Amino acid sequence: MSASIAIQILPQAGSDEEVCRIVDEVIAYLASTGLRYEVGPFETTVEGESIDELLEVAKECQHVAARAGAEKVSSYIKTVYRPEGKVLTIDQKIGKYR
Predict the structure, then answer these.
(1) CB neighbours (10 Å) of residue 70?
(2) Residues 6 or more apart in contact with residue 90 via CB below 8 angstroms
(3) Rounded CA gap, 37 and 12, in Å?
(4) Cystine design at 43: which of 8, 11, 22, 94 (Cβ 3.0–4.6 Å)?
C-alpha cells in the first residue's frame, strides 16, 4: 500500500438524523469499493495502492452525498503518499489500541 486518505464528509441537511443517513450512504459507497477502510467518529481512513485511485474515491464521496440529498457538501481530506515504498497501515497505526 503506497497511499492512504482520511476523509470527513459534512453534508448540510435538515436534521442530525438526515446528516447521519447521508454519511451512512457515503460509508456504504466506501465499503463497495473493496478498499480497506476504518470508520472513526470524525473521519474515515481508506488505504490503497494508488493516490489517484484514492482521490477519485474522495471525489465520488461528494457525489454520493449530493445524490443522497445533501444541500451542500463540505469535506476535509488528509493524504499520505509514498511513490516508492509503503506507508503505515491502519493496523500499524492503531492496532495496539484495540
Answers:
(1) 22
(2) 4, 36, 38, 45, 47
(3) 24
(4) 8
Query: pLDDT digit string (tens) for 57-94?
Result: 999 999 999 999 999 999 999 999 999 999 999 999 99
Note the pLDDT of residue 8: 98
- In angstroms, the CA 96 to CA 15 distance is 36
Q: Where are the domains of the chain?
A: 3-83
SS3 label, residue 21: helix
Amino acid at residue number 20? C
- Other Cβ atoms less than 10 A from the Cβ of 83: the count is 7
Q: Model-level pTM?
A: 0.93
Per the CB < 8 A criterion, the answer to whether 13 and 72 are in contact is: no
CATH topology of domain 3-83: Alpha-Beta Plaits (3.30.70)
Residues 6+ apart with CB under 8 A from 20: none
Q: Which three cell numbers stand for residue 19?
A: 446528516
Residues 78, 35 contacting (CB under 8 angstroms): no
